[in-house]
Amino acid sequence: MPARRxxARRxxARRxxARRxxARRxxxxxxxxxxxxxxxxxxxGATQRSQCWVRARRxxxxxxxxxxxxxxxxxxxxxxxxxxRRAILVLSLSLNMGDYYTPVPTVRPVSPFNxxxxxxxxxxxxxxxxxxxxTIIDIITQRTNSQRQEIAKHFTQExxxxxxxxxxxxxxxxxxxxxxxxxxxxxxxLCKELNKAMVGAGTDxxxxxxxxxxxxxxxxxDMVEAYERLFDRPLAEHMCSETSGDLRRLLTLIVTGxxxxxxxxxxxxxxxxxxxxxxxxxxxxxxxxxxxxxLAHESFPQLKLIxxxxxxxxxxxxxxALQDEISGDLLEAMLTIVENxxxxxxFFAKRLHxxxxxxxxxxxxxxxxxxxxxxxxxxxxxxxxxxLYDKTLESVVTNETSGDYKRALLALIGGP
Length: 416
Fold this sequence. Notes:
mainly alpha; 0% strand; elongated
């Protein structure tokens, strides 16, 4: 009996070694590191490798059940058990945003966190003669949005006061704009920005495009619900009344939530790329409807596959094709989608540069991007900004702003 158990253990060890060898040959040693162009993430760093190794083991287990044909492409191999393993693949593919980069925020949850204590400190900073702006900056810029909502709730419960109204009465200028932007839920803040872009004389299409064309379906859904709650009017209806033509059709598709955030299919990517090629370069004139449909419906990872397939088919990048085939605000909207598919930090670094370049500063854009990306990837954007423009985002903000406004922005971006 002991000899049999020893043989069984040795057999299990040999099978484990074989499985590990197959895993390495299959590209799982670095966390689902599948060929470029197949919409799979490359996790970097020891922690990410260990996390992805767990995911890889789960995927291999599924493969053992559903069959694993090594002659098929990596994405095709995953198809038989795609629906049952969607949650795993969502983690592995980083489906929220395009280039499967690792987003690095500058604002993270504070721990330990005491909302009652923060509320009391903020009350003291605004009570009596004068205002302690530095204390307001230190607390509000160093808490996440969900933590700020807890502080606001405790402030109302303990003092029977609205913290937003108190802040409005104590602060002013762009400093007030930054602090109030931080104190409301992100979807509410973005809806207010959309509303400002559409009310009054003229429409700020650049703001509509930046906000709507860079978001996932979940973010769009949150904004649609918040907009109707805040303004008693559907976002799609208001937007349709303020835009026109193909831009209106593209933005309407985005707002109505047609994008499938979880769809990745290498075969369909080539077909869609051929459709785009036929609708543009191979056609006299351009069929904008085809471009609208594909760019608004497909997930960001799927669009990345489509853009790579397009380059293989036509020999040109999708950006080059769009610049030749499309113009005006529609071109701006489509390029925004493309840049957010390829690498979101690059898009937002360019937007920040546009906001501070030339005469004057677009403070609304500067505030909106720094506030909204601080919990997402502002550290990544800072690095990209320095790489693109050979100067730090901190130095630019220091030169373009002043006073408490400057100190609040620098606190968010992690500047001195």
